[in-house]
């Protein structure tokens, strides 16, 4: 079975989305240990291709390493429709990027969220209504899919709030990267805890 797949999207795929990709992978690894990769794939892409093939932006890579994540092997890539098709959950840095994803693949709207929006709604998910948790690929996939459906129901027809967007830290100081890293972990850590309690 294919692992539960999360696609993180930002503009250039060198700051926000790679940070989210690697911090979610670390949050899951904290809970699942070495079996992380068979349980969850955390990937990312950018709406623009101007950084394609580049490594993570140095301050983003420093932040990921400081938070016990890995920047090894990261290469920026441009978002394509098949990346969206393969994802069970798509988390965008901003509402504009949500619109970009849904314009490419309208059928992905129910599994696409602004990262802060997903994190904000996650706390209201009824844990008792989710499939049982187990560190096995089928169980993680079923529970992950149920979490995505529950968050989509909680969102209803509401639009993301302005505060749900992640600031673009590119070209700004480490303090901005730290704040954005905190905001990313405000979603990725609770999501990993709900997926693998």
Which key phrases capture this entry?
11% strand; 197 residues; 4-stranded parallel sheet; Rossmann fold; single chain; 4 strands; globular; alpha/beta
Structure description:
The chain is of the alpha/beta class. It has one domain: Rossmann fold (3-Layer(aba) Sandwich). It contains 8 helices and 4 strands. It has helices at 16-32, 36-39, 58-66, 81-86, 95-104, 115-122, 137-155, 174-195, and strands spanning 4-10, 40-46, 89-92, 112-114. A 4-stranded parallel beta sheet has the order 2-1-3-4, with helices on both faces. Helix 1 (16-32) runs parallel beside helix 3 (58-66) and helix 6 crosses helix 8 (174-195). The two termini are 21 Å apart. The mean pLDDT is 96.
| Contiguous uncertain segments of 5+ residues | none
Count of structural domains: 1
Mean pLDDT: 96
- Beta-sheet strand percentage? 5-15%
Number of strands: 4
User: Number of helical runs?
Assistant: 8
- Corresponding CATH architecture: 3-Layer(aba) Sandwich
Tell me the CATH topology: Rossmann fold
Protein structure class: alpha/beta
How far from one another are the termini? Answer: 21 Å
Strand arrangement, major sheet: 2-1-3-4
What is the CATH class name?
Alpha Beta
Cα-atom radius of gyration? 15 Å
Largest sheet data: 4 strands, parallel
Find the CATH superfamily: Response regulator
Which geometry do the CA atoms define?
Answer: globular
Order of helices and strands: EHHEHHEHEHHH
């Amino acid at each position: 079975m294919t692992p539960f797949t999360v696609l993180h999207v930002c503009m250039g795929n060198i700051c926000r989305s790679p940070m989210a990709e690697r911090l979610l992978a670390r949050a899951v690894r904290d809970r699942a240990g070495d079996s992380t990769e068979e349980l969850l794939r955390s990937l990312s892409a950018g709406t623009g291709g101007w950084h394609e093939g580049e490594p993570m932006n140095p301050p983003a890579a420093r932040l990921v390493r400081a938070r016990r994540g890995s920047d090894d092997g990261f290469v920026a890539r441009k978002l394509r429709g098949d990346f969206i098709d393969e994802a069970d959950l798509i988390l965008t840095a901003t509402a504009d990027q949500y619109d970009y994803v849904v314009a490419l693949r309208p059928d992905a709207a129910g599994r696409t969220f602004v990262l802060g929006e997903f994190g904000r709604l996650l706390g209201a998910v009824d844990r008792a209504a989710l499939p049982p948790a187990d560190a096995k690929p089928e169980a993680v996939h079923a529970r992950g899919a149920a979490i995505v459906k529950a968050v989509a129901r909680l969102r209803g027809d509401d639009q993301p709030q302005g505060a749900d967007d992640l600031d673009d830290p590119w070209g700004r100081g480490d303090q901005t990267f730290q704040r954005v890293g905190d905001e990313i972990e405000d979603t990725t850590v609770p999501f990993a805890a709900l997926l693998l309690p």
